[in-house]
Design a protein that fits this description.
Length: about 200
Amino acid sequence: MAIILGLTGGIASGKSTVSNMLDQKGYTIIDADLAARKVVEVGQPAYLAIVEEFGKGILHKEDETIDRAKLGNIVFHNDEMRKKLNGIVHPAVRGLMLSEKDQAIETGKNTIIMDIPLLYESDLTWMVDRTIVVYVNEETQLSRLMKRNQFTKQEAASRIASQFPLKDKVGLADAVIDNNGTIEETEKQLEKILKDWDLRP
């Protein structure tokens, strides 16, 4: 019986770093962000539903792909529109991730990693058996985000504030990786979890 692990964290917490480590160790990663990009590719059902709802004005002229900035501007300031968009995209993303999971199980995988940034915010814990949260303290998160995205302190702080606080996610997790230290320390913690839970790729 395959084990489904939910991997999550917060913006600039280092979740992608841990996801890459697992990938290099041969684990199957199903990435929610990647799935969200796939379901809105030209011609996909979610793409057609978005164009129908928001009009062709949100498309790039040259290739008819969705202009994320334009769509983002519409939904950022309008709750109702954002709910409509999420109502189209979220079920499509879940569907794609679950079918990728089924395919991985069919090929004999023992452990499947669901990399879901908004695992708790979107109430998706039903999709996984256990959860790992990648944690950093607020100062580290702030400085990493400012450096990574060239944000001002205020911009970075507002991005962090828009998410469920990392310290609250820690209380909900089955295991926590403290990513305040070095990469080596992070990897050591990951390996301990994999060993303790007896998780093979």
